[in-house]
């Protein structure tokens, strides 16, 4: 038992990484303070329930922070940020890059469900095929209710198919040592979609899934239908805090180029609220 990771050790490692990763400012200081105050002196061994409690506490400041407890884990602690692993092409292809559904409804409405935002190098053929099938539709429903996020480049590609051929700046992502702008790509004439579009969102729309809905909504291109999303606007990176604890920690925040802010903590608020069982009918009525 003496070798078991205890709570104050975990929190010290966690807050140390937050100091390294997060851009300086009020949010970083507040997150470190609330975690230290709540858990910084506890001597009890870390459990899965403790990790969940740390998450809930952190979510008051950063909705995207997550801890995965792995009993019996033996992996080495990270001393440098390793970044995200390379995507596995066979895994992405096996799920059609998250394009789980393209369906024409009886009134020429095309329903496209995108449940992942996989690396654009692998996802683009599936997304382009889905949008090609939607070309002749009267209206489009883009269902993001099961979209847990992913590649910002894929967000930009989908946004471009709806915003137009000319590149549009979507956001700037602020890190401790740099800033990165995200733009929709230049596209060939005739490849973008001009129909009315509704984006369906809910509690399962998260991170970059929220980004896509937010960027399109703030530019007035779509009508957002459904339920308010969780509000996770930070970019995160995986960090091994202990053999038994893998963390996903914020390393940057998003600034939308239209609003100058983001959806952190407040979520993407629908233009029209609807429960899940009637959201498709509500969306079609709204677009008509």
Automatic annotation (TrEMBL):
<feature type="domain" description="Tail specific protease">
    <location>
        <begin position="84"/>
        <end position="275"/>
    </location>
</feature>
<protein>
    <submittedName>
        <fullName>Peptidase S41-like protein</fullName>
    </submittedName>
</protein>
<dbReference type="GO" id="GO:0006508">
    <property type="term" value="P:proteolysis"/>
</dbReference>
<dbReference type="InterPro" id="IPR005151">
    <property type="entry name" value="Tail-specific_protease"/>
</dbReference>
<dbReference type="InterPro" id="IPR029045">
    <property type="entry name" value="ClpP/crotonase-like_dom_sf"/>
</dbReference>
<dbReference type="GO" id="GO:0008236">
    <property type="term" value="F:serine-type peptidase activity"/>
</dbReference>
<dbReference type="Pfam" id="PF03572">
    <property type="entry name" value="Peptidase_S41"/>
</dbReference>
């Amino acid at each position: 038992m003496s070798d078991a990771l205890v709570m104050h050790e975990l929190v010290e490692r966690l807050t140390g990484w937050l100091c390294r990763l997060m851009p300086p400012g009020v949010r970083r200081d507040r997150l470190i303070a609330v975690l230290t105050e709540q858990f910084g002196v506890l001597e009890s061994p870390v459990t899965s329930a403790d990790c969940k409690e740390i998450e809930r506490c952190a979510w008051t400041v950063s909705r995207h922070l997550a801890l995965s407890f792995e009993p019996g884990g033996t992996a080495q602690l990270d001393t440098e940020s390793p970044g995200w692993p390379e995507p596995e092409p066979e895994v992405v292809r096996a799920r059609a890059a998250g394009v789980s559904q393209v369906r024409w409804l009886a009134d020429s409405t095309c329903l496209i469900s995108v449940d992942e935002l996989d690396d654009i190098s692998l996802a683009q053929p599936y997304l382009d095929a889905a949008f090609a099938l939607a070309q002749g539709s009267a209206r489009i429903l883009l269902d993001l209710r099961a979209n847990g996020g992913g590649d910002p480049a894929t967000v930009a590609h989908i946004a471009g198919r709806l915003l137009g051929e000319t590149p549009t700046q979507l956001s700037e992502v602020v890190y401790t040592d740099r800033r990165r702008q995200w733009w929709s790509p230049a596209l060939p004439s005739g490849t973008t979609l001009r129909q009315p579009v509704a984006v369906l969102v809910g509690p399962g729309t998260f991170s970059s899934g929220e980004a896509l809905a937010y960027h399109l909504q703030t530019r007035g291109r779509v009508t957002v239908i459904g339920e308010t999303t969780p509000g996770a606007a930070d970019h995160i990176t995986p960090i091994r805090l202990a053999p038994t604890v893998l963390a996903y920690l914020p390393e940057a925040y998003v600034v939308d180029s239209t609003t100058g802010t983001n959806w952190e903590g407040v979520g993407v608020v629908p233009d029209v609220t609807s429960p899940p069982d009637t959201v498709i009918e509500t969306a079609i009525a709204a677009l008509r």
